[in-house]
Amino acid sequence: MTRDDLEDDDLKIVVVLADSRSVELGLLLRSTASELGMLLLQAMSESSRNEWAVPNLAAYATSSIHQANRETSRRNADFRGLIGELFADGFSWLISNGLVGPASENSGSGSEWAITTAGKLALVQGSAEHVQATRRLHVDLHPELEQTARVNFERGDYEIAVFAAMKAVEVALRSATGASSSTYGVDLAKGLRPGGPFEIGGDGTSAEIEAYPMLYRGALGAFKNPTSHRVVEFDDPVEAADIVHLADLLLRILDRERRRRGITEGV
After folding, report:
1. Which of 67, 81, 71, 86 is CA-nearest to residue 29?
2. What mean pLDDT value characterizes the chain?
3. CA 193 vs CA 211, 215, 246, 250: distances in Å
4. DSSP letters spanning the chain
5. 26-83, pLDDT tens digit by residue?
6. What is the spatial distance between Cα 227 and Cα 236, in angstroms, rounded to a whole number?
7. Residue 207 CB neighbour total at 10 angstroms
8. If pLDDT is split at 50, 70 and 90, which confidence band does 115 have?
9. 190 within 8 A of 196, measured Cβ to Cβ
C-alpha cells in the first residue's frame, strides 16, 4: 500500500505509539521526520517500558490498527509497510540527533533503544531545538571558543556562550591592534580603520578596507555590548549558535591577517 492508496476514512484510523499515545494515521502521514521523531519520543517517555526495539514499535502500532479498527483487519497486512516506513523516518531522526541511544539493559539482541539525556531535555523543552542548534556547533570551532562558548552553549547557557564568544573576539582584537587594556567593545574596531595599526584587506579595494572596521564594530555593538550590561534572553538557540559562528569567522579573519603579516605568536 502507498499513501496514494489511502481513503479518507483511513486517515482517521487510530494508531497507538509505544503502548501509550494514540494518534490518527493522518497526523503521522502529515508529519515531517522530526515531528514523527518527537511523537515517538513522547510516546516512549509515557510508556511503561524503558526501552524499545524499532520493529516491535512498528509491530505494536500495526497491531493497534487491527485491535481498534476491526473493520480494517482485512487490510492489516497492507498497513504494516506504511507504518514501518513512518517509524523508520522518525526513529532515524531520533538516532541521528542523539535523542535515543542503545539501551544499557536489553534482551541481548542489541537492537533496543532508550531515551538519552539529550532526549529527556528535548521532552522537557517540548522540542529538539537545543539539540539541533548544538549540532550546528559540532564543527572545528576556533580554539578560543572550544572551552568557553561551546561548553556553555551545550549546557543551555546561550547568553554566556554568546558573551564568551564575543569576548574572545574583543581580546583578539585588542591584541592585534595593540590597544590598551582600557579600550573596550566597539572602540577596539578603530584599530582596523584604513591606515590604522591593523588595517585588514590592504590588497583589496578601499571599500573593502573600510568595511572590516564596520563589521567588527557592528558585531561587538550588537552582540557583545548588550550581554556585558544587561541580561539578554536568547529564546532561539539557533540564533545564539549563529552568533558563535560569527565570532568564529571574526577570529579566523584576524588569524588570516596575522599570517599575511608573518605574525606567528598567538592571541
Report:
1. 86
2. 85
3. 9, 11, 20, 15
4. --GGG--GGGGG-EEEETTTEEEEHHHHHH--HHHHHHHHHHHHHHSS-S-EEHHHHHHHHHHHHHHH-GGGGGGHHHHHHHHHHHHHHHHHHHHHTTSEEE-SS-SSSS-EEEE-HHHHHHHHHTSSHHHHHHHHT-S---HHHIIIIIHHHHTT-HHHHHHHHHHHHHHHHHHHHT--TT--GGGGGGGGSTTSTT-S-TTS-HHHHHHHHHHHHHHIIIIIHHHHHS------HHHHHHHHHHHHHHHHHHHHHHHHHT--S--
5. 999 999 998 999 999 999 999 888 888 888 889 888 888 877 666 544 454 468 888 8
6. 16
7. 8
8. very high
9. yes
Angle subtended by helix axes 76-96 and 54-68, to nearest 10: 140
Which residues touch 79 (CB under 8 Å, ≥6 apart)? 1, 13, 62, 65, 72
Contact 65, 72 (CB under 8 A): yes
pLDDT tens digits, one per residue of 172-200: 999 999 999 898 888 999 999 988 899 98
Residues 6+ apart with CB under 8 A from 217: 186, 189
What's the length of the chain? 267
Q: Which residues contact 235 (CB under 8 A, 6 or more apart)?
A: none
Neighbour-count burial for 18-34, b at 16+ CB within 10 Å, e otherwise: bbebebebeebeebebb
Rounded CA-CA distance 237/257 in Å is: 31
